[in-house]
Amino acid sequence: MKKTTKKIVALLSAIAILGCVFAACSKPADDTNDTTDAAQANAKTWIIATDTVFKPFEYTDAEGNFVGIDVDILAAIAEDQGFKYELKSMGWDASIAACQAGQANGMIAGASITEKRQDEGWIFSDPYYTATQCAAVSKDADINSIKDLKGAQVAVKNGTQGADYAESLKDEYGFTIVRFDDSPTMYQAVTGGQCVACFEDTPIMKASIKDGDLALKVLEDSENEGSGYGFAIHKAENQELVDMFNAGLKNIKANGTYDEIIAKYLGE
User: What is the three-class DSSP state of 46?
Assistant: First the structure.
């Protein structure tokens, strides 16, 4: 009788164990993976490339901090939209290359929205600032018009709207173009006498002349109609970043933050 009882108990124990196993196997999957995926998405840090010397949009202040209109606008939009980013100061050409190679998710560097760039695969945000381009010459130069540049060498910065503007005028006004990698070197070519004039975005040119005490003057008749600056990506997979930028830009314009940033650097 005792042996039979022991067998029954052992059998019942085995059945109970099997029941637990089957219950565990048949339990519906929880949403732990979904939660993890969502957390990973929210924790993503976007890599954003920018220029190094494009005052007042991006530059280093006296304390060594990286500042400027683009820097502040990006920070305000990221806070509004709740995304994380790492801003890498690379220079203009390197920023372009990084986006094209997938080493950066986006770029904010006073990039003009043009049909040519869009044809090359760039995807832009809504414009966040509209800038014209202009020409400048040495302060003591006897030059008062683009017409006076005939036969002269003119400096431009590679890959910029200022360079494109100069290209569109060179045949009509008979000047030749010399290319440089950054704005300070371009300005130095004019103040040093290597070139007679340079072309640049007007707010950058005027800020550089004023803050850098450069011996340059803007040719009054040299401004074009201008175009908008946009946040840019070169990979469609980063469209989410552009969408967040657009939404945040709309919000910071509505709450006054945008106007405060522009006034801080341009007094507008």
Answer: strand
